Amino acid sequence: MQKFDVSVVIPLFNEEESLPELHAWILRVAEANALKIEVVFVDDGSTDSSWKVIEGISLEDANVKAVRFRRNHGKSAALQVGFGVATGEVVITMDADLQDSPDEIPDLRRMVVDEGYDLISGWKKKRYDPISKTIPTKLFNWATRKISGIHLHDFNCGLKAYRLELVKNIEVYGELHRYIPFLARNAGYTKIGEKVVQHRARKYGTTKFGLERFINGFLDLVTLAFVSKFSKRPMHFFGGLGLLMFVFGFFSALLIGAGKLYSLSQGVKAILVTDNPWFYIALTSMVLGTQLFLAGFIAEMILRNTARKTEYSVGERIHC
Questions:
Q1: Per CATH, the architecture of 6-231 is what?
Q2: What is the pLDDT of residues 5-21, one digit of tens each?
């Protein structure tokens, strides 16, 4: 089996115009730097002629691998399948729209191989995007830094380099491709750096992402932060919160009852316990506390008896 220096994983959706130019550019970089590069195209259910273009490229270049989804699964699914196919010492991901420059490949590889990084994330310091995209991106990156504790400037940059071992030991699903550095750190790969990379204006087609990705991205970040902390011990969250609510409700009910008894002992007329709004707050707290505790217990039981298995509907493969 041929050993590659770099695997370039390229997820794509309807990018027929840019693929030949991108592939030719990668070949020039490989030749100029004496690198053995395999290119892994993952067609995420394109509806244009992208797959036919890839088939033509694969006939000319035996170092091209390609996977085609029967329908659109999203970038995370495409990357996960691409990581499974990749065999190079260093795995580099880039978008297919020519906004990422293949000229960055040698330096990214050097930083992983020679400087010992597990992951290098690209930083598009100078961007050619409209302000409607750059401002939400800055807010998104700021929130991600605060929640994850990883100090990168551009989490959403598609141009990244990874040690092969890393991509074989993480699972990218949903829309978590934005948070691969977070996933990597949670898997024990802590040497994460970044490199300023060139950002090019889009040459063909239009962007496939809208503003809703920032809302979804933030929700995914909150989910990831929760899962990374409590996925192995859900009882610590649900059980702890449930216990706190139950104790609050119990002592509130106890105080209400004690207050009622004290009033009766002093001959003071007191309202019925059921007329006291705090009684219902206390009762609700105990009920919710019990439910949360049980949810944590059930989650612990499920965790010990099941394992995640994600499957994708793969249509065709080339050289895989």
A1: Alpha-Beta Complex (3.90)
A2: 999 999 999 999 999 99
Going from N- to C-terminal start, the domains of the chain cover 6-231, 234-305
Query: Read out DSSP for 32-87?
Result: HTT--EEEEEEE-S-SSSHHHHHHHHHHH-TTEEEEEESS---HHHHHHHHHHH--
Alpha-carbon span 294 to 300, nearest angstrom: 10
**124-133, 161-170, 173-182: segment of lowest average pLDDT:** 124-133
Taking only the tens place, the pLDDT of each residue in 171-200 is 888 778 888 998 899 888 999 999 999 887
Integer Cα distance of 186 and 228 in angstroms: 7
Contact between residue 54 and residue 19 where contact means Cβ atoms under 8 Å apart: yes
Residue 314 one-letter amino acid: V
SS (HEC) of 235-286? HHHHHHHHHHHHHHHHHHHHHHHHHHHHHHHCCCCCCCHHHCHHHHHHHHHH
**Long-range interactions of 204-208: CB distance < 8 A, separation 24+:** 204/15, 204/17, 204/18, 204/97, 204/98, 205/14, 205/15, 205/17, 205/18, 205/97, 207/97, 208/13, 208/14
Which residues partner with 41 through β-bridges?
10, 66
The answer to whether 250 touches 286, Cβ cutoff 8 Å, is: yes
Instruction: Select from 203, 204, 207, 200 the least CA-distant residue to 100.
Output: 200
CB-based contact 160:122 (threshold 8 Å): yes
